[in-house]
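Need the bound structure for IPE, inputs here:
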Amino acid sequence: MSKNNIPNHVAIIMDGNGRWAKNKNMPRNFGHEEGLKTLSKITQKVFDAGVKSLTVYAFSSENWNRPKNEIKHLMALFEKAIESNFQYMVDNKIKFNLLGNIKKFPLTLQKKIKNLEEITKKNRVYNFYLAANYGSKEELVFAAETLRNSTSKITEKSFKNVFYNPHLPDVDLLIRTGGETRLSNFLLWQSAYAEIYFTKVLWPDFKAIHLNKALKFFSGKIRKFGKIY
Ligand code: IPE
Ligand code: IPE
Ligand code: MG
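Answer from helper R.:
Posting the output first, comments after.
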C-alpha cells in the first residue's frame, strides 16, 4: 500500500476574492489585493513543506469576460506581484514560469514576466508556475494544432511536449478555495489523477492551517492509478 506524504506538484485555484471583499462591503479589487498577499504567504509555506512545484490559477482565458476595470486592476496587480516577489524567487532558487498565452497581456507585464523567467531559468529544484490567461481547452487545441502541422506521431508524450510548458509535472494535489466544486478549465489533462481538495475558505482567508489540512488530506490518500490494492 503506497501512501504519499508530500505531493510533488500542488496546483491551486485561488477563488473567492470578490466574495471576500463583498462580505466586507468593499470593492472586488480590494479582494484581489488581499488575495495577492495570501499568495505570497502561501507560496512560501508550500515550498517550506517540501513541495517542488506550485501552480496557481490567477487568470483564466474566460476571465476576459469580466468588466474592463477589474481586468485592468488585475493586470496591474500581476505586475506588482512579480515586482514584490522577484527577490524571493531569486534568493530561494525558484524557477518562475508563465503558463498561458502571454501575448494578450500589456507589454510592460510581458516584459516583467520574460525578465523573471530569464533570471530564474537555471533554477532546478523549485518551480513556480503562474497560470495567467490560461485555459485548458485552449492549451489542448494549441497542442493539437501544433502536432497537426508537424511530422511527429501523436502520442501522450508528443502531445504533452507541445503544451505551454512541457516540463509541468502532473498535478498531485489540486486545491480549490471559495466553495465551488468545479475545475473552471484548469489543467484538465494534467489533473487526470490529481487528488482534489475543495474548501469553502475564501482565498484571502486561506492560511497555513488550511494548507496543512489539504496536505493532510493528500497524505491519507492511496493513489491507485487504476490498480488494485
Ligand atoms: C478569483 O476570485 C480570482 C480571479 C478569478 C482573478 P474571484 O474574483 O473569482 O472571486 P469570486 O469567485 O467572485 O468571489
Ligand atoms: C477560476 O475562478 C479562475 C481563477 C481562479 C483564476 P473563476 O471565479 O473565474 O471561476 P468560475 O467562473 O466561478 O467557474
Ligand atoms: Mg470566482
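Comments: The first helix runs from residue 17 to 23. The mean pLDDT is 96.
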